[in-house]
Amino acid sequence: MSVKENLLNIQEKIEQACMRSNRSADDVSIIAVTKYVSVETAKEAIEAGVRHIGENRDDGLIKKLEEIGDEPTWHFIGSLQTRKVKNIIDKVDYIHSLDRITLAEEIHKRASGKIKCFVQVNVSGEESKHGITPEQLESFIKELEKFPSIEIVGLMTMAPFIEDKNIIRECFKRLRKLRDDVQAQGFSYAPCTELSMGMSNDYDIAIEEGATFIRIGTSLVGKEF
Question: What's the mean pLDDT when you consider all of the chain?
Fold first, then answer.
């Protein structure tokens, strides 16, 4: 199927998930993850109506941005090495993978304006995944106050890639609870209104549990390399 057909199918599933959870589909933004596809396919996604593009690597983001321009909203969604911050810092609208103070220091040092960041939380506890632990979140958020270039707009996580939907759902529920706890503290630098969670295999569950950004790659744009 074409990217446009894939998008229509995804939008229908979003509508259904929102109906089940008494939400509005307007509150859910689709980020097309274009790591494994060409510039042409990324453009096809934009032409189909996608407004958010996500890249996992600095070189991939820069290449696509140079050819596509700033029509879409650009998200850096992969693990970000401190030394590569300078390559992407003023090119992206959101960074989804803030998980250590050394990275916050570099973002603050390099940014020419305020950068919207998600704190990545390793809710599942898998060693293969990046992110701070849930227990570290409160102190981590408080420490970020000293970096005025950073605005914490929300939290991000990745659920385990497994069949058990109950375990997946619990991961998303826990992230929402953590988000709510941060939001309730009323930090001006960390409004924490957003939840970046859900990918091709589990975005419907993520939406039911409150996701505001879902990161969709294969089921939307496919995989070319």
Answer: 97
Decide: 136 and 177 in contact? Cβ < 8 Å: no
The CA-to-CA distance between both ends of the chain, in Å, stands at 18
Q: 171: Cβ–Cβ under 8 A, 6 or more apart, which residues?
A: 123, 124, 157, 159, 160, 197
The answer to pTM > 0.70 is yes
* DSSP assigned state of 223: -
The per-residue pLDDT for 108 is 98
- And the tokens for 73? 């909203």
Q: pLDDT tier at 24 (50, 70, 90 boundaries)?
A: very high
DSSP state of 132: B
- What is the arithmetic mean of pLDDT over 157-178? 97
Contacts for 3 with CB less than 8 Å, ≥ 6 apart:
41, 44, 45, 48, 220, 221, 222
Q: What tokens appear for 168 in the block?
A: 């997946």
Exposure letters 175-184 (e unless 16+ CB within 10 A, then b): bbebbeebbe
